[in-house]
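Per your request, structure below.
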């Protein structure tokens, strides 16, 4: 998947209640939430920002329950 020429970065927002807070940015499709705590459910939204500072409409919410520790290389195995 190629990105538009005016793409700058993604903003990643997270909520574990009713409000979304910016938790980071990424220039790739990968993002790891360093503050996620096992046993909690978080919902995420992504906004694309272009080189002019224009922001897209937020993505649909994606909610995740963190139930296991993912090891380096994936696998979802508990440590």
């Amino acid at each position: 998947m190629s990105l538009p020429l005016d793409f700058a970065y993604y903003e990643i927002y997270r909520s574990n209640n009713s409000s979304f807070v910016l938790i980071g940015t990424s220039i790739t499709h990968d993002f790891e939430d360093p503050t996620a705590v096992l046993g909690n459910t978080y919902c995420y939204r992504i906004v694309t920002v272009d080189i002019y500072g224009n922001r897209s409409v937020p993505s649909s919410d994606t909610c995740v329950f963190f139930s296991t520790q993912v090891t380096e290389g994936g696998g979802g195995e508990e440590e």
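The mean pLDDT is 85.

Regards,
D.
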